[in-house]
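Appendix B. Chain record.
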Amino acid sequence: MKLTLGQVRGALHLSQDAYRHWKTVLLPLAGRKGHRACFTHSDLLALAIVKSLTDEIGVPVGSLDSMARALFEQCGQQSWARFERLVALICPGDWSLSFVPDGQISQLTQATIVIPCAPIIASLRTALMVEYPDEPQAALRFPLAAVAVERRSAGGSNS
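Structure tokens predicted for this chain:
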């Protein structure tokens, strides 16, 4: 299932101006048109990590260009269920990126930005589910099918 630009912006609470700026500085966003669904769930995760870096840590989005391609590629290699057990490690010196299990962050050897993926994914799931509220009537398990009805004559005989 692909997402539209409006769905992505809504899930991330991202303004149109911010997205326009991101599109100019992050190469993986170049050429994306918002008129049709063209974003994958892995793109949404990568953008959520970028948003976390810019909003929570104050990293200028322009400085993330060198790692943007690796971020989008790595987010596309695994499912969200796998990413929930990982943290993103970003070394600001060279903007290198790696994802490791959350129990392995004690082995760091340099200044590193640590972003746990589980809260980001939980937030994205909640935002995406708002678009699809629970139906008041459950969906039918089996599709509707035509049933032939046997007609009886007015006299009641079946001849």
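Further analysis of this model is presented in Appendix C.
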